[in-house]
Amino acid sequence: MLINVSGHVDEAGTCTLIKDAAFPEPFVSGLQYNAPARGVWNIVHVGMLIPKSHQIYVCAANCLRGVVLTAAEMGTLDRFSTIAVQENNVLEGDMEELIIEGVSDILNKLPQKPPAVLIFTACIHYFMGCDLELVYTELRKRYPDVTFMDCYMDPIMRKSGLTPDEKMKRQLYSILQPMEINKKSINIIGNNIPTDESSELIRIIRENGYELKDITFCKTYDEYLNMAESCANISYLPVAIPGGDYLQDKLGQKHLHLPLCYGFDEITKNLNTLREYLGLPKKEYADEKSAALNALKEAKKVIGGSKISIDYTSVPRPCGLARLLVENGFNVDRLYADSFTKWDKTDFDWLVKNKPDIKVYATVHAKMGVLDRKCSEKSLAIGQKAAYFTGSEYFVNIVEGGGMYGFDGIARLAGLMKEAFTCPKDVRKLIQIKGWRCGCCL
């Protein structure tokens, strides 16, 4: 699609009122724009969560640029290698040999063999019918002391089966092996950012004598492997569900999906699901609800009727957060989301009925690179993409929920909203940081 950028560009195809938006995909998929808001994590960041591991990417040189830059920005090039697929490899059909000998050459030159190697194959290997089973069998034979993990950089798979994020979050735990179950140990899985210690979720676990394990806590490879001994895995991000189900089948660990959400009834239900599993009585959480509502009231006094924009990278359920804010008197004006998940359907329907004039904007539509989309007045943005597209210096800089959970999470988010509306940020500087807060994994 060619666009004349010399004149006015209208919003057709990029924006719709929520009452007119088709669920779950309000926009037609086509040529895409990639906004320079880089806070979300990519496969390099996620793979680095495994301590002492080494990543090897096997693909064409053009595809390697992004992952190389990510490793360089993280300061982890010593744990990162590449194997470039060239035209002769395609023509001669020696893809298997390229991977086997390339990986062998890398490992033989490293000063010390890593305990785990994550090999990322790409689209070309599927196009060529590469025998990856043969590749991994040979590598495991050559290096019996190294654990090889099959990982994937395959954007061609984005529209079918597991998403790249879901697949990576599953593979992240795939090398864990069965251990004797410790009934006083529980994992939180699927997160890139540690959950706030003040959250009700963490307090339930710790105050009742359970050891909490999380890959974001792991400093050694053995600590990571010992996650296999826990009796249960808790996930609260949707992308972690396949990983939790996989570990339940493989290791016999109970999978409790307690979704990150913003409805008080659902939060209470999630917390009581955990309490029931631990043999604890149910709780109404009246004090915690009151504290969350008071925090929202305090934020409302500062923000008033100013417009609020929310993007899908900031929280897994943007409609759920929008509903919470609307119910508490805030003026939610925009949602930046190219599609919605099934988890957002109930809150989406509520917004259609109760706040039908909310604008839903695409983030990847080709027009978004040239569209005049700035807010002319002071507004609050929640998420980096919302800050970029609205041009607001007043934004809450979080991704994937920011580690906030439950009623405590709502209270903390309200505090961040109040702070953000008072203290402007350097948007250009902050939104360029890849893997926001990813330093926690190093």
UniProtKB/TrEMBL annotation:
Nitrogenase/oxidoreductase component domain sequence ranges: 79-355
Highest taxon, organism lineage: Bacteria
A GO molecular-function descriptor: oxidoreductase activity
Name of the featured protein: Nitrogenase component 1 type Oxidoreductase
Q: Which species is this record about?
A: Clostridium ljungdahlii (strain ATCC 55383 / DSM 13528 / PETC)
